[in-house]
Amino acid sequence: MTEEFAAVAEHAESAVVDLCRDLLRFESTNPGKGERDVAEHVAVLLTDMGLEPHVYESEPGRTSVVARVEGADRSRDGLLIHGHLDVVPALAEDWTYPPFAGEIAQDMLWGRGAIDMKNMVAMTLAVAAGWRRAGVKPPRDVVLAFVADEEAGGSKGARFLVDEHRDEFELHRDLYGYPEDLVAATERATAEAYDLATAGAEPFAGAAAGRWIERARREAAGGD
Fold this sequence. Notes:
The chain is an alpha/beta fold. The chain is 40% helix and 15% strand. The protein has one domain (3-221): Aminopeptidase, CATH 3.40.630.10. The strands form two sheets. It has a five-stranded mixed beta sheet with strand order 1-2-6-3-7, with helices on both faces. A two-stranded antiparallel ribbon has the order 4-5.
């Protein structure tokens, strides 16, 4: 890892827990309250990074956010990194700690979405903020997509974006290198997020965030 990317990783690992904790405090249940509030929060964070987020709604309250990070070589195919903002409902009486409080206890971060999938959203935001802080451009354009409605099939999130705003994603591949559209890729990313769960569940380790950062760096720098 180069010195520049080491600085990105250091910042990301220090920021990811607080980012995830804040995300968990939004009750973006599906079915339920929807994603509008957490999407607006993510859009503010992206704006603070100097990006220009686009906020899209398939219907009132069903909200997704897309932003582009300019790469050093814009002639190369871009990279799509994505996560979903919705979570399944949670009954407080079934939880050791309140599901939407984002409490840290027993060296773990507790809350609905800490594993699926606000951990991945937090890691993505942490890396993007690290790029900004370190003055680093990724080797190619990176599109960040934070989508609604994954928990109910994606028709109001990923499918809506692909159908109505395909220009955001043309000529881009997803993080894991498959040339599939965002709908299929969102489902796969949800499954793979379980392998990264410790970034949301063990805030003082930071190991999973570091592994994700290194994986993203290799994918961004690599060839087709």
